[in-house]
Amino acid sequence: MKGSKNAVLALLGLGALAYWKFKKSSPEEQDEIKEKFNVAKDNLNKWGSEAKSKAEELANKAKSKADELASAAQNKVQDVAEDVKSEAGKVENKLS
After folding, report:
1. Are 22 and 33 in contact (CB under 8 A)?
2. What is the pLDDT of residue 3?
3. 69-93 tens-digit pLDDT
4. How far apart are CA 82 and CA 76, in angstroms?
5. Over the chain, what HEC string results?
6. Model pTM score
7. From first to last of its 96 residues, what are the pLDDT tens digits of the chain?
8. Which pLDDT belongs to residue 25?
9. Residue 2: how many CB atoms within 10 A of its CB?
10. What are the backbone dihedrals phi and psi of residue 94, each rounded to the nearest 5 degrees, phi first?
11. Distance in angstroms (rounded) separating the CA atoms of residues 32 and 26
């Protein structure tokens, strides 16, 4: 707990220092810093969108495979049920 508290305080201190330094810088330097932040934000948004689309693609593939396996299992159950009925009919005929 103490380590995380120190980490938060360190981040707050760095943030305050960065804000102070930003406010002291010239308008040209401020514009340059803003541009760097905008580029970084755009890159993060792009990466997030790509990750989201990849995750959706994988989820769709998994769902498709699960549906395929469920359908195959259902078909197998129906085949076994038909075989059981057929064998039951044969046994019944032998007993009659």
Report:
1. yes
2. 73
3. 999 999 999 999 898 888 888 887 7
4. 10
5. CHHHHHHHHHHHHHHHHHHHHHHHCCHHHHHHHHHHHHHHHHHHHHHHHHHHHHHHHHHHHHHHHHHHHHHHHHHHHHHHHHHHHHHHHHHHHHHC
6. 0.55
7. 667 888 999 999 999 999 999 999 999 999 999 999 999 999 999 999 999 999 999 999 999 999 999 999 999 999 998 988 888 888 877 777
8. 93
9. 6
10. -70, -35
11. 10
| φ, ψ (nearest 5 deg) of residue 7 | -65, -40
Cβ atoms of 33 and 25 closer than 8 Å:
yes
Cα–Cα distance for residue pair 80/84, rounded to 1 Å: 6
